Amino acid sequence: MTMMAALVQTGINNRLTRLRRCLLAAMVTLPLPALAAAPQTCGTVIVPPGVGLGTPPASVQSLSPLLTQSLYDSEAAGLLYYGLLWVNRAHKIDWSRSLATKIDVSNNNTTFTVTMKPWSWSDGRPVTSKDVAFTYHLIKRLGPTYLNYGTGGIPTLIKHFKVLGPEQFQVVMKHPVNPNWFEIEGLPGLTPYPAHAWGKYTINQMYRRQSTPSFFKVVDGPYQVQTFKMGRYVSFVPNPAYQGHKSQISRFVMDFLHSSGAEIEAIRAGAIDVSNVPFSLWTVGHSLKGVRLIKMPPNFGFDYIQLNYRNPKVAFFHELRVRQAIADAIDQKAEIALLFHGQSHEQYGPVPVDPPLFLSPSAKAGKYPVGYDPAKARKLLDEAGWKLGPDGFRTKNGKLLAFTYLQYSGGTTAALRNQMIQQNLRAIGIDMKIRQVTFNQLLALQQRPLAWEAMAFGWSLGSYPSDSGQLKTGGSYNQAGYSDKKLDRLMEDIRVKSGNEALYKYQDYASEQQPEIFMPNPGSVVIARDGLRGIRKTFSPTGSWSPQYLHFTTPPCSPTVADNTAP
């Protein structure tokens, strides 16, 4: 049996088990109508990681919310813990889905006092502000090894953290900050974790247990870990002590598929219940029976080509005109039309264009310093001293304008996209070679400055699009080594100045500088099996998942709570 066949057969077996469970429940309750309302959950839902964001499926490596290495890890870890603040699609705090009930801000924008609702861990112990303090001090101990270190000013801009009472704490900043930025980008990073369960472990011990389900026994989110099979799947069951919206399904499984073809075949065979529609299999996805197609809100982020400023072999990436020429050479409109079936928009800066909530006036008007213009790209390279040779490629001082581009394997659309980019760059005299590696290899190579030259990534932002973790000098996600003092100052202004004017200046300057080559986020269309509802409320454009809102509408599984957001 091939690996694909094994995955499909496993999914079919799981589906049969699920149907038998539901049918048995219906048969048992049939003679006893009074008992029919007793079951609160019914059925298993199986999905690959990355659903709703249009990203290729991959594996979950870690269940630790503080040690995650990818969006896929965050999707899994986020099911276990209840967030301090839930930020919705309008980039506003949804207090009904937040542990916090209010935030009081001092007149000088330095002191934030947070009040929390009563909440409990799965072992019955109360969730308190001491657990938030534990998270804060744990982040400080982790330092820059924590990938979100510094995001939203946590903990780098905090002067004092004070526990005021069991359900109230106070954060005092080192200087005044932009309240909107800190409340939706910083404070959400202080999700409480169980001090009484984790406090006895060292950082190294936590690191060694990050994929051990028993370590995550004490949770306060909607789910608990049932089984974690590295490289295969992770399954979750409802947390019976959860005080929020109760799960309407009895099990949620993330099945680690590794290609777009595997996704579409699994949905066709009934091995999974929800998946992205692969752009490379668009026609096939739209022809499937017994499913619904749902256009999802776009991921709040963008794709990009990361350029390695630490590798001397590609020192020409430090030249502004080279970076601008690369951006001007890439035909984003053609990509969107030919590969993404119109499900995207051109992207030339670090602020997502959809929704356009945070775009600068020039960006809203489509006036970027770069854009598809091959003639301009050639002129920039000529001016920079890169001379076109008889072979069609450029050189300067005996150095060829060439680099190797790492692409993660398994995505047909990504491969076609990179081939289009390769041809675009050849047309202006740049030789881009393509090398395929697995996603996990990509992450590993990124940590070795001399092992790569450029690579493909997608970037999912927090709720406020200040990208200091990735573009700031020494940022926790800045493995490429980019550094620009002016950009650093502009990003710092976002943190301290109220309003969006600082954000506008930052994005306009970054669009000019192209510290990485900003690319369109492809968007996504999701396939969901008929009878399964709650899709839009489950899969968020910021990458947070809430499968407790999934429910079945077809017998024998009936919804127990209406979902007004169902498409």
Explain how this protein is built.
By secondary structure, the protein is of the alpha+beta class. It contains 18 helices and 21 strands. The protein has a five-stranded mixed β-sheet. Helix 16 runs antiparallel to helix 17. The protein is globular. The N terminus and C terminus are likely disordered.
List its traits.
single chain, 567 residues, alpha+beta, D-Maltodextrin-Binding Protein, domain 2, Dipeptide-binding Protein, domain 1, Dipeptide-binding Protein, domain 3, 3 domains, five-stranded mixed β-sheet, four-stranded mixed β-sheet, 18 helices, 21 strands, 18% strand, globular, disordered C terminus
CATH architecture heading of the largest domain: Roll
The helix content, as a percent range, equals 25-40%
Order of the strands making up the biggest sheet = 16-15-17-11-18
Shape annotation: globular
| Low-confidence sequence ranges | 1-40, 558-567
| Proportion of residues in β-strands | 15-25%
Average pLDDT? 86
Biggest sheet features: 5 strands, mixed
Q: Which class of secondary structure composition applies to the elements?
A: alpha+beta
How many beta strands in the DSSP annotation? 21
Using only C-alpha atoms, the radius of gyration works out to 24 Å
- CATH classification class of the largest domain: Alpha Beta
Number of helices: 18
What's the domain count? 3
> Under CATH, the topology of the largest domain is which?
Dipeptide-binding Protein, domain 3
In short:
By secondary structure, the protein is an alpha+beta fold.
Helices and strands, with pairings:
Layout: H1 3-29, E1 44-47, H2 71-77, E2 100-105, E3 111-116, H3 129-142, E4 158-165, E5 168-173, H4 179-186, H5 195-198, H6 203-208, E6 223-229, E7 233-238, E8 251-255, H7 260-269, E9 274-276, H8 282-287, E10 291-295, E11 301-307, H9 320-329, H10 332-338, H11 361-364, H12 374-383, E12 387-388, E13 394-396, E14 399-400, E15 402-408, H13 412-426, E16 431-437, H14 439-446, E17 454-460, H15 468-471, H16 485-496, H17 501-513, E18 517-519, E19 525-529, E20 532-533, H18 535-538, E21 551-552
Helix pairs in contact: 1-7, 9-12, 16-17
